[in-house]
């Protein structure tokens, strides 16, 4: 009896681990369904060798144990084990945030993203989509005192002279906005670090070398333009001032990173966000 109990517990624990790993929350609930189906499939697949191999009980009892394992697997999602994943991930994110809060004596909200630079801290709101360019970044010193408050349009304007482009190319370059990425975890594995980036976009009609038209581009496409993304990753020096250098900019020049806009019959492929503004017109 003890031997059979160990087998059932082993199957259940493995199932819990698989379910937690697969569990995701989405609006339609499809990921929860797939996690549930995956749990049942895994339990059946792993239950057969664990229960049937080197087990001296009768065949009918083996099938009975397998059936019991499937019932337990069906109950696991009802016990809320999927939420353990989010509890663990939230704990790890809060732990990292609290470390910075204690080091810099600042109050950070869960929707804020932070970057540390020597004795200064850069803070912005978490936002991975282009929306408004009326956003602000804050700079704190080691004592937790706010030393600078700058709008991203001001920062973008200051970065323009250092863009890896010629003056002529800057005439058709846009500032699209800012994206921020907070720390993210998949269980205990860190997937993304805090990140803050300003996005610029150089637009040209010059066809890139070795460029291959997109398969779904209509034959009557016209007004074709090529868009090169340029990112600026803010860096602070020891005085809390923003640094602009070749290391802080990245120009995406490979063909697979170039985006294309065009017009065709009944179609207009748009690349630019509605917040885009020419860099020479940033106010």
UniProtKB/TrEMBL annotation:
It comes from the Bacteria. The chain crosses the membrane at residues 5-22, 34-53, 65-88. Keywords: Membrane, Transmembrane, Transmembrane helix. This is Uncharacterized protein. It comes from Lysinibacillus capsici. The lineage of its organism: Bacteria, Bacillati, Bacillota, Bacilli, Bacillales.
């Amino acid at each position: 009896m003890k031997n059979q109990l160990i087998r059932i517990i082993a199957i259940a624990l493995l199932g819990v681990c698989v379910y937690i790993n697969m569990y995701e929350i989405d609006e339609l609930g499809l990921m929860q369904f797939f996690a549930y189906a995956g749990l049942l499939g895994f339990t059946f697949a792993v239950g057969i060798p664990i229960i049937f191999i080197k087990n001296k009980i009768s065949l009918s009892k083996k099938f009975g144990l397998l059936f019991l394992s499937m019932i337990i697997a069906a109950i696991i999602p009802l016990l809320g084990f999927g939420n353990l994943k989010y509890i663990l991930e939230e704990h790890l994110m809060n732990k990292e945030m609290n470390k910075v809060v204690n080091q810099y004596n600042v109050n950070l909200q869960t929707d804020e993203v932070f970057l540390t630079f020597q004795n200064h801290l850069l803070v912005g709101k978490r936002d991975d989509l282009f929306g408004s360019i009326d956003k602000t970044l804050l700079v704190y010193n080691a004592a937790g005192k706010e030393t600078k408050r700058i709008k991203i349009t001001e920062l973008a304007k200051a970065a323009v002279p250092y863009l890896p482009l010629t003056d002529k190319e800057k005439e058709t370059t846009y500032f699209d906005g800012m994206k921020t990425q907070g720390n993210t975890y998949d269980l205990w594995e860190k997937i993304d670090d805090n990140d803050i980036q300003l996005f610029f976009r150089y637009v040209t009609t010059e066809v890139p070398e070795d460029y291959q038209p997109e398969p779904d581009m209509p034959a009557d496409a016209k007004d074709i333009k090529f868009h090169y993304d340029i990112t600026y990753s803010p860096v602070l020096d020891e005085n809390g001032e923003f640094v602009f250098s070749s290391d802080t900019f990245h120009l995406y020049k490979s063909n697979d990173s170039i985006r294309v806009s065009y017009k065709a019959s009944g179609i207009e492929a748009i690349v630019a966000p509605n917040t885009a503004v020419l860099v020479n017109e940033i106010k």
